[in-house]
Amino acid sequence: MFDAALGSAGLVLAFVFGLLGTLGSLIGAYQRNERLMSGARTLLLIGFFGTIVSTFAMEQALVSHDFSLAYVVANNSKETPLLFSITGMWSALQGSLLLWAIVQGLYIALLAFAMRHEADRRTGSVALGILGVVFTYFSGLLLFAASPFLTTVGTIPADGRGPNPLLQDYPLVAIHPPMLYMGFVGMSVPFALLSAALITGRLNNDWITRVRNWSLITWVFLTIGIVLGAWWSYQVLGWGGYWAWDPVENSALLPWLCGIAFIHSVLIDRRRKRMGIASFSLVSAAFALTILGTYFTRSGVLQSVHAFSDSSLGTVLILFFVAVVIFEIGLSIFAADRLMGQARFPLLSRPGSLLINNAIFGLLTLVILAGTVYPLFAHYFNHQTVDVGAPFFDAFVIPLFLVLLAIMAIGPWLNWRRTPPELIGQRLLLPGAAAVLVVAISAFAGVTALATLGAYALATFVIVSSVIVIYGNLARSSGRRASALVSRSSAGMLTHIGVAIIAIGMASATTFGHQGSVKMVPGQTVHVYGQTLKYEGVETVVTPAKTSFEANVVVNGGNTYHPAITQFGTYATAVGTPSVNVGLTRDVYLTIDAAPTTDKGPITLGIVVQPLIFWLWAGAGVMVLGGLLSVVGIREQNRRRRGNLPASDTPVEVTV
Amino acid sequence: MITHVTKPRRILFAWLALVLIAMASVGYAIVNTPSTSTAARIVTLEKEVRCPSCGNLAVYNSKTASSYSIADYIQHQVRAGASNQEIIDSLVASYGDTILMAPPANGVGLLLWLLPVVVGLVLAWEVYRSLSSRTGSQRRRTSALGSAVAIPTTAIDQPSTMRAPRGVDIGPAPSPGGLATERATSLGGVAAMLSPSAADESNREDDVGQPGSDHGSPSMGETTASRVRRGTGSGADGTPIVRRGRLFSRRLAQIGAALILVGVGALGTLLFTRSNATTAPSLAQQLASGEALAGLGAVKQARSEFQHILATYPSDPTALAYVGWIDFNLAKTKSAKADSIAVLAHAAQLGAYDASAQLYYGLALYYGEDKPIAAVEHLNRFLATHPSKPLVAQAYRLAKPAYLAAHRKIPTTF
Amino acid sequence: MSSVTEAVRRRPMLTVVGVLIVGAIIYFAIIAAQTKPAVDQVAPSPLLYRPAPALSGPSLYSHSTISLRQFRGHFVLVNYFASWCSSCATEEAQIAALARSAAVTVLGVDYDDSPGPARRFLSLYHAHFPVLQDSNGANSLRWGVSAPPESFLIAPNGIVLAKIVGPTTVRIVDALVTLAQQKGY
């Protein structure tokens, strides 16, 4: 009971002070009232404190198994281990909204801190006000529509149901959702900053840089979140894949794509020292798509393995989405004087390549958005329950992705002004030769799928070309290696290398992957898809939280792997738990497809062998590393600006 | 920075060689592509069909009872010689479009497939317009509008009331380096979500560029936008309002026309494809249901079911035969009877190996035209098609008099 | 509000496009708001209003073969279930009650199951109705069954009238039968 009271009090605090702080920030900025603005900032921080109190109450209730809370009964049991008790907060609808609110509060606090020395309080105040609107909206949602602090009706049960089986099997559940929320919710910050500057008219180059830096930070979080999500699906869901074009997955991907396009689009703006309308549209779209994504995942209108479905929230969320879009479009109309229209560029120039790049990202976003919302329309017009899956997305995404790889390889070699073709020809000769070499070798080694050949060639193209750029950057700044490495161009090139490595991994895993199942008796050894499997028998492992039925399988004479079927607490249905032999050249993915009826009976093992799938995770790691280096580069950049050092991150001038 | 450029011709030759090698490799790959094996066909089908009980996964990727039975069915059908389309159709007939991993390209689904293509084309056009260097028509339009654009690069913070007086239109100057001249024309684009360029309308009337501090300081060693603008000069808008108004209405008309076209197209697609959009049953399924209806004695419904089939497959012998036979039995006048026999003759001609066509034409010849010998010929052909037992049993009763009248021995297969 | 008209007049293109986008989004929102989350419901199926597909298999209790055709002339509720399925346990008492009532004849189809557990499961709920086994899933496939429990209401003339996905109740089935009788089936 204490937890419920404390948590609800925190929510009231968050909502009331969030609302007051938002109004104060906006009115203060309008009246240019310094005292009101700084007072409002304090109010918003108190609102943030409210969400901290609520979160504390929620965690306290989960960890102490306080079954007087309905949410705890549904998502926790006495046997749930500590880690999964803590993660219980984001295992269901209401708790995950609380996570949203606290992350939004955290971003308000961070932004207030980052702008504490700002001479002009007004723009910052408007930005905080915009973030405050989102914060107040979500705390209101928590307070009035989806409170996680409802108490159990009647007698307090002795034990709860425990978290969803899929959410208590793998420790990644502790990291993936918070990372994803940091990225997802963080998309509101660049949007708020940009909108605020459009309203007050303070859209100078420093501000553009600030918007870009925040977008970069949230983009890195979102990348980490998405990659961890894919990795988690791979480890837990048991079909050997990592991405199913599920509505929830798509919801995270959409703002991520807009984020990439924005980061590239803003490169042009910083050069021209004015914010382009394209960039504003992209950052607005990214933010609006996070709200739309929340609608998809929280309303239950789309069927998904990851969704929390609750009908009552749908309408409220879709209305907020409409309000956000109207605000964005209205702002772009009324503040268009402060934005720069689409400029004309020569094709063979850096801005030209960036423009094509962004158009393709826009198209990708649209394809994925169309595929994601299509079931709604099909249901409305045809009264059919239809889902859109891989064949539709692959048909568009794969060719577009290949074109993006090509641009990625060529773009960094172009000058900002028109670049003569012969110069490009000369600069690209080495990467081009490497790509052709790879195509020739793969073709004669027996690769026949053209998309795969294309992916190999273009990925090689990107890797060689990016490595040369980084090498050039390092060579030119002999004295300041570290700063050259974190410079924008090097970090960006590293991200590109990561993408290329991912492309190689994906192409290989899909083209040369095998899957099937084998029936084995204990002690039997089989050779399948080039792997040697020895089945040694089964054992039953019982812990308080779960009962696992584990098979012991020796892969290629090395370690023993334990694919299992696990039954958690009171959940009737057992879930399969795969076991993966991860290798640099191939993964062997094992599941139990049919359990033996007796100890000596035959077992059916599912086996998926995918070459180079490890490269996917390695590439994602490189991509995140590149993003992190650019974030580090922000500090370097700020230090340099303060110290008036000459800028070293001029766009690459490549020496071949 | 490259100071020395290798001879262009050598680079060209090097690239030519590379392209040749690449083409040879790709050609080699194409030549060596294995022809689709049965196993590959099964995998393809399993990837196109959804596991009915596991969300967004294909049968290929899932391990539930329902996906196993579909996988078995697919394998069985492929081995039995069914085409991919037949297998897909039969699954759609029992599960609906839900069973497909991607919606078929008809009805609302067609819009889904077309949308990316259309938007892609619009975007490509917009990007092309943004990228192409200034053309003659471009120049004409620009000077007509008189909107050599100059944007203040640092004076953004100034309130718009501090707008400087309008300058003189000096027309477009050739831009040094050719970079980033503001576009004078606007996009005609539906794709404005991504690059709505309407802000240049505003620019046209916008503040006159005041040389800002950035103009003074030499920036990063390359020609930047600000320098181009300086080169272009601080020209501003001298266009009479009237022209802009006309331009606006013309543009509005263009957008309107485009929208109407898109709307009509979408509506047309919906109307024309919707009839078979909602879970179109396969021909076999339709025939089976028609036969079932006929067997139930629901003659009228059966006839309309077969008419429905004929609307899509006008020369399907089975459907023709059933329609003819039902008409033959219902016919009250002589001419109606003759008409129905003509239909049956057509059916028998089209379906030399179709059981129903041969059977019903044969029966009609005996009962309608009293030609037992010709009737028996067709009835024998009917037996040669290895018809199903129930149909044979049903036919026996009616066919027996024909054989007797023709003085032929009744085949043992009856 | 002259600043509004001024802003709109100066950016006609952006205004038009903006209004279009907002219109599209509002249209989407209206559709979205009318879409209710998929709950257990009388579901669409291509089988509706068509003669029921073939359904036959070995009986769960004897060596004889049971076929849907034997029940021609009655309203039949074809109920796909499995002993391992938890929502089947939710509905089984209702199905057993339906089998005792006169409104419909219940024909159970045991989906991906073995006879022993299935018999135990049914006796647990005192369910007494003919049940056929569908060991290879061929019947389920013809009927477009995704996952148990799913039920189909068949008219006396053999036409499929309704498909019910998820646990059903006596009330739902009774209502469907009444409706069908009013329509003259």
TrEMBL record, chain A:
The Cytochrome c assembly protein domain extends over 90-299
Pfam annotation, one family: CcmF_C
Q: Does the keyword rRNA-binding apply?
A: no
Q: Which domain of life is it from?
A: Bacteria
For the Cytochrome c-type biogenesis protein CcmF C-terminal domain, which residue ranges apply?
A: 328-632
The molecular function terms of the Gene Ontology recorded here are: lyase activity
- Give the location in the cell: Cell inner membrane
Regions crossing the membrane: 6-30, 42-62, 82-114, 126-146, 179-201, 213-232, 252-268, 275-296, 316-335, 355-377, 397-416, 428-447, 453-472, 493-512, 612-634
Q: Which InterPro entries match?
A: CcmF_C, Cyt_c_assembly, Cyt_c_biogenesis, Cyt_c_biogenesis_CcmF
Keyword Phosphoprotein (UniProt) = no
Task: Tell me the membrane topology, using the record's own terms.
Answer: Multi-pass membrane protein
Keyword tags? Cell inner membrane, Cell membrane, Cytochrome c-type biogenesis, Lyase, Membrane, Transmembrane, Transmembrane helix
Similarity comment: family membership: Belongs to the CcmF/CycK/Ccl1/NrfE/CcsA family.
Q: What does this protein do?
A: Required for the biogenesis of c-type cytochromes. Possible subunit of a heme lyase.
Q: What is this protein called?
A: Heme lyase CcmF/NrfE family subunit
Its source organism is: Ferrimicrobium acidiphilum
Recite the lineage of the species: Bacteria, Bacillati, Actinomycetota, Acidimicrobiia, Acidimicrobiales
UniProtKB/TrEMBL annotation, chain B:
Outline the extent of the CcmH/CycL/Ccl2/NrfF N-terminal domain.
18-135
Q: What is this protein called?
A: Cytochrome c-type biogenesis protein
Q: Which organism is it from?
A: Ferrimicrobium acidiphilum
| Positions of region (Disordered) | 158-182, 195-241
As recorded in UniProt, coiled-coil segments are none
What's one Pfam family here?
A: CcmH
Q: What does this protein do?
A: Possible subunit of a heme lyase.
Keywords per UniProt: Cytochrome c-type biogenesis, Heme, Iron, Membrane, Metal-binding, Signal, Transmembrane, Transmembrane helix
What does the similarity note say? Belongs to the CcmH/CycL/Ccl2/NrfF family.
UniProtKB/TrEMBL annotation, chain C:
**What Gene3D superfamilies would the database entry show?**
Glutaredoxin
Its predominant location is other
What top-level branch of life does the organism fall under? Answer: Bacteria
Residue ranges annotated for the Thioredoxin domain, each copy included? 46-182
User: Is Metal-binding tagged as a keyword?
Assistant: no
**InterPro entries, from UniProt?**
AhpC/TSA, Thioredoxin-like_sf, Thioredoxin_domain, Thioredoxin_ResA/DsbE_sf
Where is this protein localized, as stated in its record? Cell envelope
Where would one find the signal peptide in this protein? none
Please name the PROSITE patterns in this protein's record: THIOREDOXIN_2 (PS51352)
Q: Which residues cross the membrane?
A: 12-33
Enumerate the SUPFAM superfamilies for this protein.
Thioredoxin-like
Q: Which UniProt keywords apply?
A: Cytochrome c-type biogenesis, Disulfide bond, Membrane, Redox-active center, Signal-anchor, Transmembrane, Transmembrane helix
- In Swiss-Prot or TrEMBL terms, this protein is called Redoxin domain-containing protein
